[in-house]
């Protein structure tokens, strides 16, 4: 295991309490910079700066990012390497109690334990199901061949069940057994079959939300809600959301996360900008926005809150939610925290 390295941020001057301000409701703040201009930022970049393989809040309240390393953001806004070489080729991230993590590699669902210990929970190493082969309703986890080389875990349920996105199938893993709860219909050539995009979510009502896509990002109107009984529907949307120009249903989905209750947060965008939407049973609203009209190269300074609906820097790709805070990371020069309560 790589040694844990605690690194202070230059913007905090080694004393986060002197300059750091937590965002109030409706504000956003840069938690880390990931420009890789110094050692601290290099560590942050390794977990949060490139194309995101996963970002998650842990039961310990820390934020974890999976990139070329597994990196945590501590409560004092310092970055630390948790695992390094042990996570090569892995995708998807769910943080569990006891310092454990769910991810995937080589056609298997993997549990990472303290010290980098690995245990395969489902799938057969190096063996895959052909997409045209039917996915069974149930299967033994240790013997089943996933269609995807990286079957991505994206949520857990209170009973310990693990939700897995396997190309065009959503599986529930429980006690060594896989149950198929949804399959995106595929018609025509396999290359044109829809796949489930990164960032699925499970709400507090046990509804699973996925975003199927074909050859590019799907639109918000295509987000599919799957109920506990296996029935599915596309979500209902208003024709207008204050602060979002045009039809919100036409925005392209970039990532999703649950809201801890009955809805989801969705990062979506188009040529006009990037938007974080809160879609819930009784409420649909804009949470955060970065307009394309903002000057290119604008930055967000660590510890300096800004209006979440007028964020000057680009909004990162992936997001995760916990206890009134959204964390966003990936493909930009900063990790953002947005307060929703």
> Helices and strands, in N-to-C order?
HEHEEEEEEEEEEEEEEEEEEEEEEEEEEE
Question: For the report, how would you describe the main beta sheet?
Answer: 5 strands, antiparallel
Poorly predicted regions are 1-17
Proportion in β-strands: 35-45%
Give the overall shape: globular
Numbering strands along the chain, what is their spatial order in the largest sheet? 25-1-28-27-26
Report helical residue fraction.
under 10%
What is the number of helical segments per DSSP (H or I, 4+ residues)? 2
The separation of the N and C termini measures: 37 Å
Number of strands: 28
Please give the radius of gyration in angstroms: 19 Å
Structural category is: mainly beta
Whole-number mean pLDDT: 90
Task: Give the topology, please.
Elements: H1 16-19, E1 27-33, H2 39-48, E2 54-57, E3 63-66, E4 70-73, E5 79-83, E6 91-96, E7 100-105, E8 108-112, E9 118-122, E10 138-140, E11 152-156, E12 162-166, E13 169-174, E14 177-183, E15 195-196, E16 201-202, E17 208-210, E18 212-213, E19 224-226, E20 232-234, E21 252-258, E22 264-270, E23 273-279, E24 284-291, E25 306-307, E26 318-322, E27 325-329, E28 334-339
Antiparallel strand pairs: 1-25, 1-28, 2-3, 3-4, 4-5, 6-7, 7-8, 8-9, 10-14, 11-12, 12-13, 13-14, 15-18, 16-17, 17-19, 19-20, 21-22, 22-23, 23-24, 26-27, 27-28
């Amino acid at each position: 295991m790589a040694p844990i390295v605690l690194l202070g941020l230059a913007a905090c001057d080694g004393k986060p309490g002197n300059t750091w301000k937590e965002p109030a409701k409706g504000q956003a703040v840069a938690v880390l910079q990931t420009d890789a201009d110094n050692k601290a930022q290099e560590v942050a970049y390794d977990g949060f700066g490139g194309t995101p393989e996963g970002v998650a809040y842990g039961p310990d309240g820390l934020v974890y990012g999976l990139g070329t390393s597994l990196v945590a953001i501590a409560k004092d806004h310092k970055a630390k390497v948790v695992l390094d070489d042990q996570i090569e080729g892995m995708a998807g991230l769910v943080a569990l109690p006891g310092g454990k993590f769910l991810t995937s590699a080589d056609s298997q669902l993997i549990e990472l334990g303290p010290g980098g210990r690995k245990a395969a929970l489902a799938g057969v190493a190096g063996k895959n199901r052909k997409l045209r082969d039917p996915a069974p309703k149930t299967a033994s986890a240790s013997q089943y061949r996933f269609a995807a080389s990286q079957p991505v875990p994206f949520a857990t349920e209170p009973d310990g069940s693990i939700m897995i996105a396997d190309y065009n199938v959503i599986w529930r893993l429980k006690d060594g057994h896989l149950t198929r709860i949804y399959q995106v219909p595929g018609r025509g050539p396999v290359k044109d079959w829809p796949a489930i995009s990164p960032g699925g979510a499970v709400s507090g009502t046990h509804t699973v939300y996925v975003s199927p896509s074909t050859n590019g990002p799907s639109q918000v109107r295509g987000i599919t809600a799957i109920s506990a009984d296996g029935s599915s529907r596309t979500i209902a949307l208003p024709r207008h959301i204050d602060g979002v120009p045009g039809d919100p249903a036409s925005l392209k989905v970039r990532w999703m996360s649950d809201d801890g209750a009955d809805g989801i947060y969705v990062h979506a965008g188009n040529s006009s900008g990037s938007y974080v939407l809160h879609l819930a049973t009784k409420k649909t609203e804009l949470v955060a926005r970065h307009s394309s009209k903002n000057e290119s190269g604008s930055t967000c300074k660590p510890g300096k809150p800004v209006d979440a609906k007028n964020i000057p820097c680009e909004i990162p790709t992936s997001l995760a939610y916990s206890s009134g805070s959204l964390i966003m990371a990936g493909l930009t020069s900063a990790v953002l925290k947005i307060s929703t309560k």
